[in-house]
Every structure is written in C-alpha cells, then in structure tokens.
Fold:
Amino acid sequence: MPQLLPFYFLNTLTYGFILIMILLVLFSQYFLPMILRLYVSRLFISKL
Amino acid sequence: MLNLINTFINSPLDQFESQTFFSIFTPFMDMNNFNITTFALYTFIVLFIIISLFMFTNNNNMIMGSKWFITQEMIYDTMVNTIKNQMGGKLWGFYMPFIYTFFMFILVSNLLSMIPYSFALTAQFVFIISLSFMVWLGMTIMGFYKHGLVFFALFVPQGTPLVLVPLLVLIEMMSYIMRSLSLGLRLAANVMAGHLLMIILGGLLMQFMSINILTTILGFIPLLIILCVVMLEFAIAMIQSYVWTVLMASYMKDVQYLH
Amino acid sequence: MKRFPTPIVKPLWPFFIAAAVTYYGVSKFADAYGNTDEYINDPRNPRFAKGGKIVDLTKNKETMEE
Structure:
C-alpha cells in the first residue's frame, strides 16, 4: 500500500497536526462563538 | 482531445500515493518534514474551504446569514444536540469545539476526496490512526489527572459479581486499549475500501464499454449500479464523520464521569 | 471578525501532551521503518538527498554468514 511508505509519515503528521491546531483555534475563538452570538441576538430580538 | 481509451490506471492503489512537489533543503537542519506534498496541498485546500464556509457566508454578521450559512447553523445544531445527549452533565461545552473541529475536518476532507482524481486525506492510515491514538492518550491522561487511581473504576461495570471482577477488568481493559486503534481504523478502512471499490468498478466498466458500440449502450445498465455505489460513498463520507463524533463524545463521557 | 477568549489550553492540555508523544513515537517508528532492508535503497529515501550511498545488502548478508 502506498500509504505505508515510511518517508511520508512525519510529513503527514506535521501538516495534519498543524491543520488541526489552526482549525481548533479558529473554531473555538472565532466561528462557533459567532454562531452562538447570532442565536443569542435572535433570542433577544424575538423573545425578550 | 482527451484520449480516454489509452488513459489507464496502473494500480487502483495509485490514488493514495503522495508525491513531493517541492522540498525544502537546508544544510544545517532536517526540513524534510515540511516538504510540500500532495497531503500538504490538500490540508491547505481543507483549511481554505472551512474558512470560506464561515467567512464568506455570514452576510457581514447580519442577523440572517446567506443561504449557505444555513448549512453551518444546521451542522452546529446537530453537533450541539449530539454532544449534549452523548456527554450529559455540564462539561460538554468545554470539549465541544474540539469535537467539532474533528467533525468538520473529517467531513470536508471526505467530501473533498469524492471529487474524481483527487486525494483522500482520511485514507492515510498512519495519520488517521495517530490522530485517534492522540485522542485516546489525551483522554487517558485527562482521566488519570481528574480521578487519580479511581479512574480504574471505569473497567468494572456496575453490579458485577465479585467472582467475575478479574476477568471483566481484563476484558474491559483490552477493549479500552483497542479504542485507540479502532476509532481511526474504522474511518480509514471505510474510506479506502470505498475509493478502491469505485475505481475498480469504474475501470472494469471502462474496458467493457470501449469494446464496441453495442457494449457502450449495454454498459449504461451497470453504470446505474456504479452511480448507486457513488451515492453510497457520499453517504459513508458523511456517516463516518458523524460516527467519529458520537464515539469521541461517548469516550469523553466515560473519562469525565466514569459510567 | 470578532475574537472571543474561549479557553483552549486550560481544558485541552492533555491532548497537546498526547500529540507531542504521538509525534515523537511516529518519528522513531518512521526512522526505524525507513532503515529496514525493504526501504533503505528506495530512491525516495531522504538520506540520498544528503549524499547517502547505496547500501549493498547482499554483501552484508555474506559477511554475516562468514
């Protein structure tokens, strides 16, 4: 299997972990609070 | 014109092979891990897709996003409900962004790999299995930090007769350790098997349809079956990311609350 | 885009440790696996970029037999 070629193991891990890290920061500090703030603002407009 | 008849694929496994586009070479340090390979290119594409799904669709932070933003709200609702139901308690909010990250990464890379001639990120066994091992090891560290030695109570189900305890602890511990492997292997094996199936069936049909005019017309009947297989693969691409999320949330619950 | 101070390191520090451990383990495994007989003469092996020579595997076996 070409996936099990050992010269690319660390390359995949390096880029994969960096991607997961960037995504984690983006999601937890920018994107998910954005959606939550949107929901809260809708709630304030309609119900409260 | 594209010569489709003479375009043949040497091996069905060729699609998983990553190539180096350019390598960074310095004489004093090993920069080999930072080569731009196919994998690195596709991580950039996944990052770009996810950022654009959120940034270009939110309609300048208006109270109503664009139509594309509804998909993001839907995914958010699904994830919140799933993780809340699986974990329970109050702690789910701390770990929700982490699980959400994995969900979006697996979903986008699975769907990206369904484009013909593209590369499947999630079929790279070493990366996915080390990702699942990382998740498992982090949860184990977290459990020992939070509960101390009481963490071993996870291996004894409630209401066990005392005679069966040594046997059950052995079995439960085996299943707990195997989680690190099975979580990633499930995803990678599913994606890889699906892509292999599609390329093998497609190659066979390509050879069959290129014999003469009659077989070209007859070949449209198996083409329908292949279409069904492709639809199944799209379903699997979404289901596997959901399965990963559900399992990760339930493992997190085990570690946080012990039963 | 507005930035919200969601805690990341505080609840998720075990995963960062686990990622470092996994990275280290896989690097060791890749080194060991790349130096086996199957892959040591592979032209994609990165040691050729640093001027490594081809290892004659048959010679090694003969000397070992002697």
Observations:
- The mean pLDDT of chain B is 90.
- The first helix of chain B runs from residue 38 to 55.
- DSSP finds seven helices and two strands in chain B.
- The radius of gyration of chain B is 23 Å.
